[in-house]
């Protein structure tokens, strides 16, 4: 995939028999997907989108302006990722980042490499970064105090629970010593 493209949505299951689909938007405001002249998929095909309700149902049109013909055509696009060119997106605010900017960055703790960011997870309770090898790090200022976009390096400070220090649990409490 081209580095100048940002994942903006994913096509879900068909809706009805007339070629409509559910689309999961990654935009802060899903209505903006209608404003982009071209959404591009993994195969390089261009699409435009028009919402058909408030529940994520949309009509997709190909580069020639033709809507999907029927449910079978819609089914063929399930899990298709939709991207938009980076240059049409607003620059992120200070302390905000596009996931695409973080993926591939080198994560370092005290000068030692912990691997690269392979995925950014956000299930609503706060984002976390998945590093090569499966390590998950909360994407908070305490755990990621510095992000150097130009140098492509993140500074990581793992909490005790993640660092795996022996004898320490949640909140740094030590296991009770047996009494004699």
UniProtKB/TrEMBL annotation:
<keyword id="KW-0963">Cytoplasm</keyword>
<dbReference type="GO" id="GO:0005840">
    <property type="term" value="C:ribosome"/>
</dbReference>
<feature type="domain" description="RimM N-terminal">
    <location>
        <begin position="8"/>
        <end position="87"/>
    </location>
</feature>
<keyword id="KW-0143">Chaperone</keyword>
<dbReference type="InterPro" id="IPR036976">
    <property type="entry name" value="RimM_N_sf"/>
</dbReference>
<protein>
    <recommendedName>
        <fullName>Ribosome maturation factor RimM</fullName>
    </recommendedName>
</protein>
<dbReference type="GO" id="GO:0043022">
    <property type="term" value="F:ribosome binding"/>
</dbReference>
<comment type="function">
    <text>An accessory protein needed during the final step in the assembly of 30S ribosomal subunit, possibly for assembly of the head region. Essential for efficient processing of 16S rRNA. May be needed both before and after RbfA during the maturation of 16S rRNA. It has affinity for free ribosomal 30S subunits but not for 70S ribosomes.</text>
</comment>
<dbReference type="InterPro" id="IPR056792">
    <property type="entry name" value="PRC_RimM"/>
</dbReference>
<dbReference type="InterPro" id="IPR011961">
    <property type="entry name" value="RimM"/>
</dbReference>
<comment type="similarity">
    <text>Belongs to the RimM family.</text>
</comment>
<keyword id="KW-0690">Ribosome biogenesis</keyword>
<dbReference type="GO" id="GO:0042274">
    <property type="term" value="P:ribosomal small subunit biogenesis"/>
</dbReference>
<dbReference type="InterPro" id="IPR002676">
    <property type="entry name" value="RimM_N"/>
</dbReference>
<dbReference type="GO" id="GO:0005737">
    <property type="term" value="C:cytoplasm"/>
</dbReference>
<keyword id="KW-0698">rRNA processing</keyword>
<dbReference type="Pfam" id="PF01782">
    <property type="entry name" value="RimM"/>
</dbReference>
<comment type="subunit">
    <text>Binds ribosomal protein uS19.</text>
</comment>
<dbReference type="InterPro" id="IPR009000">
    <property type="entry name" value="Transl_B-barrel_sf"/>
</dbReference>
<dbReference type="InterPro" id="IPR011033">
    <property type="entry name" value="PRC_barrel-like_sf"/>
</dbReference>
<dbReference type="Pfam" id="PF24986">
    <property type="entry name" value="PRC_RimM"/>
</dbReference>
<feature type="domain" description="Ribosome maturation factor RimM PRC barrel">
    <location>
        <begin position="100"/>
        <end position="161"/>
    </location>
</feature>
<dbReference type="GO" id="GO:0006364">
    <property type="term" value="P:rRNA processing"/>
</dbReference>
